[in-house]
Amino acid sequence: MQPHVDTIHLGTLPLSQGGVLEDAKLVYATWGRLNSAGTNVVLLPTYYTGTHDSYRPWIGSHSALDPDRWFIISPNLFGNGLSSSPSHAQTPAQRAGFPLVSIRDNIDAQHRLLTEHLGVKSVALAMGWSLGAVQSMHWAAAYPAFIRTVFSICGTASCWPLNRAFLASVRAALAADPAWMDGAYAHDAPPTRGLKAFGRVYCPWAYSSTFFRQALYRTLGFDSIEALLLAWEEEHLAWDACDLMAMLKTWEHADIGSLAGQSASKALANIRAKTIIMPGSCDAYFTAEEARIEGALIPNAEVRVLDSPFGHCAGAPGRFEEETRTIAMTAHALLAMA
Amino acid sequence: MQPHVDTIHLGTLPLSQGGVLEDAKLVYATWGRLNSAGTNVVLLPTYYTGTHDSYRPWIGSHSALDPDRWFIISPNLFGNGLSSSPSHAQTPAQRAGFPLVSIRDNIDAQHRLLTEHLGVKSVALAMGWSLGAVQSMHWAAAYPAFIRTVFSICGTASCWPLNRAFLASVRAALAADPAWMDGAYAHDAPPTRGLKAFGRVYCPWAYSSTFFRQALYRTLGFDSIEALLLAWEEEHLAWDACDLMAMLKTWEHADIGSLAGQSASKALANIRAKTIIMPGSCDAYFTAEEARIEGALIPNAEVRVLDSPFGHCAGAPGRFEEETRTIAMTAHALLAMA
Questions:
Q1: Chain B residues with CB inside 8 Å of A284's CB?
Q2: Which CATH number applies to B4-159+256-336?
Q3: Residue of A110, A281, B10, B320 with fewest CB within 10 Å of its CB?
Q4: DSSP letter (8 states) at residue A280
Q5: Closest chain A residue to the Cα of B209, Cα to Cα
Q6: CATH topology of domain A4-160+255-336
Q7: Over the stretch A302-327, which tens digit does the pLDDT of each residue have?
Q8: Residues in domain AB hydrolase-1 (chains A, B) (predicted)?
Q9: What is the dihedral of CA B235, B77, B251, B169, to 10 degrees?
Q10: pLDDT-based confidence at residue A141 (cuts at 50, 70, 90)
């Protein structure tokens, strides 16, 4: 089912970490129709190297997110190449000049989209994988009365320190290529070596020892680890390096404490939504351990570990059958009580 | 206590993976004196970015490895800058021309050192951290009658697939720097950006989420993750890039199965030594899971997990007090039954 894709122009956005984003554009997709009460909404914020399109496997009459019943909205993260991004912004936000747009800035822009443009009164379920999960948690903490349930998959509310060190490492791999030029390279001279290294450094973090030991990359259609690594190179070559770095900055600065005067525990305690936190059992950077620490601080949250050998990728929409089924059932259960 | 450091010249070494290493030099250190029976030997093969000198914290009258009683031998891994290495070999083994020297090749050269040059009849304990652990296991499988006990710390007998993917990732970080030139760079034009990226990509793999979350890098004297990452950059800048890559190749090709016609289980079953395998509880690349799989295949092995938040680094000689104490006690116990 094709979504309706649209753009809203938000003008000059003041940014929570300082500065502004000029001529801010938020691109979003919707499936289904808003009911008259404005309450049948499922919100799917996008993840790193994803767009609204990446959520398609979760959406359909076969799934929990049935557009016949729900009005599904997927707003694209700033920096992802669809919403305002270094790759197509005008100066001064062009390329290396793109400012830090925080998770909070994303949430607030999305809130304007929902309330001012779409007439949404309340969100039945805010749900997402990875950086989409991060945004769902921020939503529930920033607008507690607006969000009825939350489903956070392979994500945490803040970027924990190991996760930041991991992000510093992929950044270093890209920056090892002098063609990166701190983002000042020309469009036609991208840092291809660095982009490939970025993908290759990222890949082993995304899965697990079991995944590699049992050659589960075969289930993804790859004959060897090298073939898998090459695919990660290719996938990252297709991205604009400045866009990747902009989203990475958003991610590493994710701090739910910023919603409550620097105290993450205060912000988490503020969440009213029935929340299910589903870390992957062997997620190497959004760890189950840290998801549990956060879960214990949310009044109405339950941590349900997704037992999977696919590491962080366990929650990738539609990628793995059993995991996808678990996710659909859980979303269904949350919607039933939303 | 200063060791005696010496070099033996092994001539032209035929290599197990094909080709030869010309004019092979093995640099080794010894502490203490060999007894008349030739049996009071502790063998400490070196690890990645280590030399015999790195083992000093384990050696002394305060420790299990007392040179008054034991004859301690630490042979340097080929490629580590002391034994034959790309950085100082003559053509054709110079720099990028350095061949793949396998763990088996290292073991066999060390065996010649011990038997032909030092008059060793039997090894009481083969012990090492990381790639030193790998070598200890290979020793016990290749020369089962020669090794009485083994202590493998944060290592496995073979390089498991996740570990290989991790190594591919640090290699990619170095190779993202075009100055690397596939190893053909001049001595005075090293790939500094790549070396820094290598260190930075390596670092988050070496510790654990707890280490970063609890800011345990402070126990190492660093105020921030960034300070820690900079230290990893510095440390790797001090290494020759071709030497790093040569040792990395040795590591990723570690395959104990090569000692028994490609069957690792056969090779492990061949080990006669009383063996203690001590994986770090949260080692990200020499995983406890895979250490257990191997341990179950060795007749006289016990797996004792080293409960530590320091990831792979838990076993680094002398770095962490409690871990160092556990290691010393375990070595002591093994030597008591050697």
A1: 284
A2: 3.40.50.1820
A3: A281
A4: B
A5: A162
A6: Rossmann fold (3.40.50)
A7: 999 999 999 999 999 999 999 999 99
A8: 41-195
A9: 20
A10: very high
